[in-house]
Design brief:
single chain; alpha+beta; Vanillyl-alcohol Oxidase, Chain A, domain 3; eight-stranded antiparallel beta sheet; 17 strands; about 25% helix; globular
Length: about 450
C-alpha cells in the first residue's frame, strides 16, 4: 500500500510537511507555545479541495484530523498521535455585503481581516478580544465579544457555513440546509466538521466609547468592588471587566507599564457616552493613575486588552460565576492580588448578562450563558517549574471562587480538554452526539472537548 503522505501530496495542492523536513517546526507550531504539538504530518490547506484531500486520506488510512487556523487554544487538543494537523491559515479571504450587513470569512481568517474590511461600511463584527484570533474557532466556541451584552454570542449571528464533514462530504450548512449540523456547530466546537467558510451578520456600530483605567494594585479591592457595584445598574450597551495585572519587565512593554502591577478596569460602550457614565463616574472618583477611556472606532476594540499578537506560551483557566458579591472580590484579591505570590499575569472578572443571558429562539447549541460573571486567569510559563506554578495557581483561583460557581462552563475560556456536558444541557448533549455520529461516523475529527458517548 502506498504511503498515506505520498498520496496526500499527490492530491493536495498546498504543502504537506513531515517530521524532520525543512519547515517542520514552523508548520506544527501553535500560537500558544505552551502546546508542543507533534502530529503525524501537517497539511497547509489553500482550498476546500485541499481540505477534502486531507479528510479522504485520513479515512482511507485510518488517521485522524485536527484543524487549526492560529492555534490560540491548541492546548485542549491533547496528543496528536496518528493525527494529521490541517492548517487553514492560508485561507484568509474576506468579503463584505454592506447592504445585507453580512461578512463571509474563509476558514483561516483572523478577526483583523474582518474588522478592517467591515469598518469602511460603518459596520462591526462581534469579534474576539485579540485581533489575531481565528474567526472560525472563536465562533464555533460561542464567541464573547466587546459587544456581547448588547448582541449576544457571535455563534448566534452565523447565517451559513461551508464545511467538509468527517466522512468527506462538502456541504453548505444553514437553517434550511443540514439544520441539525447548523445547530450543532454554533457553540458545539470544532469536532463536527471542518469549516472552510463562515457567513455571519455584522452590526451597525462604527464608533464606541472604550478604554482602560489603571490604579496601583494596592488599591485592588477598592477598585474591583466599586466596579462590581456599578455593573448592577449598567445598560446592555456596556461591556466591561476588572482585572489584576502584573506586567512583565520586558523591553517591549511601554515604560509606564513595564514591570509594574495594576488594578485595571476595561470597558466598551456601543450606546454612546451617556450609557457608560454610570460606570465611569464612580471609578473616576477613585482618581485612576491613568485614564485612557474615550471615543474610538469599533474596529479598534481588538487593541483594548493589549494582548500579545506574536506567539507566546500561555496557561490559563476559568470559572463561570452565577453571581459576584463583595466576598467574591475579597477572595479574588486574596489569591491573585498584592501579597498573594500569584504567578498569573492577569486575572480578570468579566461582566456578562444582558443579551448573553437571553437565548434567541433559533439559537445554536449554546444559546446563552447562565452566569453573571466569568473569572479567567492566565500566566506565561518560561520553563517546566513556571508551568507547574501557573497550573497550581489557576487551581487555587478556581477553588477560591467555587462557592459562586455556575452549573456550566464557557468553551472559549476552557483551555484544557473537558467533557462537553459542561457546556450544554443533557438533552442538548445527546443531540450533539447524534449529529457527530451522522456527519463523522468514524470519529475522524479531533475535538478539543471530545464526546464520550
Amino acid at each position: 500500500m502506498a504511503s498515506p503522505y505520498s498520496e496526500l501530496r499527490r492530491r493536495h495542492r498546498g504543502r504537506v510537511v513531515l517530521p524532520g523536513e525543512d519547515g517542520w517546526d514552523d508548520a506544527r507550531r501553535a500560537w500558544n507555545l505552551a502546546n508542543d504539538q507533534h502530529p503525524a504530518a501537517v497539511a497547509l490547506c489553500e482550498s476546500t479541495e485541499d481540505v477534502r484531500a486531507v479528510v479522504a486520506t485520513a479515512n482511507e488510512h485510518d488517521l485522524r484530523v485536527t484543524v487549526q487556523s492560529t492555534g490560540h487554544n491548541a492546548t485542549a487538543a491533547g496528543p496528536l498521535t496518528d493525527t494529521l494537523l490541517l492548517r487553514t491559515s492560508a485561507m484568509r479571504g474576506v468579503s463584505i455585503d454592506a447592504g445585507a450587513r453580512r461578512a463571509r470569512a474563509e476558514g483561516g481568517a483572523i478577526w483583523r481581516d474582518v474588522t478592517d474590511a467591515a469598518a469602511p461600511h460603518g459596520l462591526a463584527a462581534l469579534a474576539g478580544s485579540s485581533p489575531d484570533v481565528g474567526v472560525v474557532g472563536y465562533t464555533l466556541g460561542g464567541g464573547v465579544s466587546w459587544m456581547a451584552r448588547r448582541y449576544g454570542l457571535a455563534a448566534n449571528h452565523v447565517t451559513a457555513m461551508e464545511v467538509v464533514t468527517g466522512d468527506g462530504r462538502a456541504l453548505r450548512v444553514e437553517r434550511d440546509e443540514e439544520p441539525e449540523l447548523f445547530w450543532a456547530l454554533r457553540g458545539g466546537g470544532g469536532g463536527l466538521a471542518v469549516v472552510t467558510a463562515l457567513e455571519f451578520a455584522l452590526v451597525p456600530v462604527a464608533e464606541v466609547v472604550a478604554g482602560a483605567l489603571f490604579w496601583p494594585w494596592e488599591r485592588a479591592e477598592e477598585v474591583l468592588e466599586t466596579w462590581r457595584r456599578a455593573t448592577n445598574e449598567l445598560p446592555d450597551t456596556v461591556d466591561s471587566l476588572a482585572a489584576l495585572v502584573q506586567v512583565p519587565p520586558l523591553p517591549e512593554m511601554p515604560e509606564p507599564f513595564r514591570g509594574r502591577s495594576f488594578a485595571v478596569v476595561m470597558a466598551a460602550a456601543s450606546g454612546g457616552p451617556d450609557s457608560i457614565a454610570g460606570l465611569l463616574e464612580p471609578l473616576r472618583a477613585l482618581e485612576p493613575e491613568m485614564d485612557m477611556v474615550g471615543p474610538m472606532p469599533a474596529s479598534a476594540l481588538g487593541q483594548l486588552k493589549m494582548d500579545p499578537e506574536e506567539p507566546v506560551p500561555a496557561i490559563g483557566g476559568s470559572v463561570l460565576l452565577s453571581d459576584a458579591t463583595p466576598e467574591t472580590v475579597t477572595e479574588l484579591v486574596r489569591v491573585a492580588g498584592p501579597g498573594s505570590g500569584s504567578p498569573l499575569l492577569s486575572v480578570e472578572l468579566r461582566h456578562l448578562g444582558g443579551a448573553l443571558a437571553r437565548r434567541p429562539e433559533d439559537a445554536g447549541v449554546v444559546g446563552a450563558i447562565d452566569g453573571r460573571y466569568l473569572a479567567f486567569g492566565v500566566g506565561m510559563p518560561m520553563d517546566a517549574d513556571g508551568a507547574a506554578a501557573i497550573h497550581a495557581h489557576v487551581a487555587t483561583m478556581t477553588d477560591a471562587l467555587a462557592r459562586w460557581k455556575a452549573d456550566r462552563s464557557v468553551m472559549n475560556f476552557t483551555e484544557h480538554s473537558t467533557d462537553p456536558r459542561a457546556f450544554c444541557a443533557a438533552g442538548d448533549y445527546d443531540r450533539l452526539v447524534a449529529v457527530k455520529r451522522r456527519y463523522d461516523p468514524d470519529d475522524r475529527l479531533v475535538a478539543s472537548h471530545p464526546m464520550t458517548s
